[in-house]
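Lab notebook page, bench 4
Experiment: in silico fold of construct C2
Operator: M.H.
Input chain length: 392 residues
Purpose: comparison with the prior construct
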Amino acid sequence: MANNSDDVASVPPTFSLNVTLPRNTVQIFAELYASGNGDEEFWYFNTADEYLGDLPAGTTYGGGPFREVRMLVDGQVAGVAFPYAVIFTGGINPACWQPITSYGALDLPTYFIDLTPFVPVFADGLPHNISLDVASAEANHTLNENWYVTGLLQVITDSSSEPTTGNITSYTAQPYAVTETTGSVGGGDVNVTVKATRQLKIEATIVSGSGQENQVVWEQNLEYSNTQYYLDNTYTQNVVQTATGTILSTHNGVTTVSDQFEYPLNINISYLNTNGTLFYSSFDHSYNRDVLPAPFILGSTITERQLASGYFGETASGNYGNGTSNNTFVYADTQDNTFTWNVDAAYDVITLNQQSGSLATNALPEFPQATKAMSLPAARLPGGKTVGVTLS
């Protein structure tokens, strides 16, 4: 589903598609993909428009740091996602992501919405509009270019060919999240905090052609906070962000979709010279999620934390730097599979690799640390800045 290709859509603008489903549809489950790119790659570093003019030109982009991915049916919000902040390879400090990338950089998380309350809408057999967009906390909810979004629908039909009936009995959802922006400016420091909350609850009664009744309750309760500290005339830049949520859908009182998540993110960038060609950075990045995507998809619990730090420098002869990374990953699923992985790296080599659990493989041996700085590609930084020589 796309507005410019066969696979993904670039937003803004809103992506929109008319969809016709079988009249005997009884359940609909959606899976969403969303990735910030271009001027939105470091969306969590974008500052609120209200305070952008208090920062030196080129420090970062505007549009604020809050992002909400929305799915709408015929213009009504059907479900949302507060996205996980993915740091791609080369993002901020390439030395921190060799040889271990940031979690999610090569396999972005997806998000799950129960569209079953809208079955009575689709059951008329006519086209209905499904749209995807990404909204900010700014007054006009606009953002920069661009996000790539896509999704899929998994549709369950009844054994009977008779049309499904029913209706949405309760709908509680605001068009956009409730947001608040505060800040302070003075003494060479600019501090900005953006907070957001989202509550959504939709209830429906669905009666299949074979006569089975389904009472559906779909609910999302999400919270978000981001504080940016631009200190010492932006020589020090810190972001402290967290997104949390509880998502639950029940069909006749039985859990059908559930998602509890917490995505803490702490980043420091400290410039060590006046022209910005030498800097230190550190990352404390976690992905904690207990999710049941649909009744026919394996549920899983993942607890992941990555601590990475390093320096990056540019000279006339090329880029250099060193980085370290400490990673803990714990996995369990509803089929009793388990996997724990502790893996560390320093100076571009693996220094620790410990695995356990039913899915574990033979651990790799420990490797000695390298003794010289790495050759690195240029670093991509917030605000469209690039530090370093581009490798050919």
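Observations: The radius of gyration is 23 Å. Helices lie at 49-52, 119-122.
Next step: discuss at group meeting.
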